[in-house]
Amino acid sequence: MTRTVGLFFAAALIAGMTAVFTGTAHACSCVPATEEQAFARADHVFQGRILAKSDEPDQKVRYRVVVSKERKGDVPRYVSVITEMSSASCGAKLVVGKDYLVFATGDASDRKVETSLCGGTRRVDRERACGN
């Protein structure tokens, strides 16, 4: 009986230590927002085509974008959009060759801005991207 109780406490101790040292995984959680709210929060809003994708240090991704139309802020014709690599870390997944309406933050004077899964960036078709 004493041995069974001892094994129970040892198992409980190991389970507790595992929970403490492994931590809890966190997923990206976005507060729902309208496009108007996303526009208000962004420093820059522009339409553009994704030209290239490259991995950056610190689990980031850089998308090279040619801007077709500025909606808010001032961005150069060619700008890098930086985001987290993982969607679990709120990274936006963009597709090379596709057009997007990008909601971004940051100072574009260095030709870089940032976006996230929660920022409002979305795909647009080519006709809509050029027609608006």
What does the model show?
The protein is α+β, with helices and mostly antiparallel strands. The protein has a single domain, classed as OB fold (Dihydrolipoamide Acetyltransferase, E2P) (Beta Barrel). The protein contains three helices and six strands; from the N terminus they run H-H-E-E-E-E-E-E-H. It has a six-stranded mixed sheet with strand order 5-3-2-1-4-6. A hairpin with a 5-residue loop joins strand 2 and strand 3 (78-84). It comes from Lentzea miocenica. This is Tissue inhibitor of metalloproteinase. Keywords: Secreted, Signal. It is found in: Secreted. Pfam families: TIMP.
Q: How far do the termini sit from each other?
A: 77 Å
- Uncertain residue segments: 15-24, 128-132
- The residue fraction in helices comes out at 25-40%
- Here the CATH topology equals OB fold (Dihydrolipoamide Acetyltransferase, E2P)
Q: What's the helix count? A: 3
CATH architecture: Beta Barrel
Shape: globular
The multimeric state of the shown protein is: single chain
Which sequence of strands runs across the widest sheet?
A: 5-3-2-1-4-6
What is the level 1 CATH name? Mainly Beta
Please give the number of β-strands.
6
Structure class: alpha+beta
The pLDDT mean sits at 83
Q: What fraction of the residues are assigned to beta strands by DSSP?
A: 25-35%
Number of structural domains: 1
- Measured on Cα atoms, how large is the radius of gyration? 22 Å
The SSE order reads HHEEEEEEH
Major sheet attributes: 6 strands, mixed
